[in-house]
Amino acid sequence: MVINVCLPQFKPRIHCNKISADGYEVENLISEDLARRNRGFRSEYFIKPPVHVTISFPFNIEICRINIDISSGGYQTFSGLEVYTSTSCNKTSWQNPEGQFPGLAGQPVSDKDTFTLVRSE
């Protein structure tokens, strides 16, 4: 059985280190609204890689399959995609919004389960 754990009822958190194009916010990827989810995420056309998208979950998951559509709509190209995962039993930062995404600040991500997409060219 395949379950989309990025749906709102599973309470995922999402963050991107770059700005998005209007209407293509990173939050679309976990939106309850199907139209927004289908629209997806795009960074602004002038953004240089890498673009880090971090999705965090309040529970452990076993990733068996990841569906990613990297079509860009014609004005951005992709030459690589890297996927990183991390898991830990320590959930202390889950209640602390300031420490929500420590890996993006150069510190190791060790206090939550993380699924990170890195777009690179």
TrEMBL record:
InterPro entries: Ubox5, Ubox5_N
Domain RING finger protein 37 N-terminal: 4-118
GO molecular function, one term: ubiquitin-ubiquitin ligase activity
Gene Ontology cellular-component annotations: nucleus
UniProt record, GO biological process: protein polyubiquitination
A family per Pfam: DUF5918
Highest taxon in the source lineage: Eukaryota
PANTHER family (UniProt xref): RING FINGER PROTEIN 37
Name of the protein this chain belongs to: U-box domain containing 5
Lineage: Eukaryota, Metazoa, Chordata, Craniata, Vertebrata
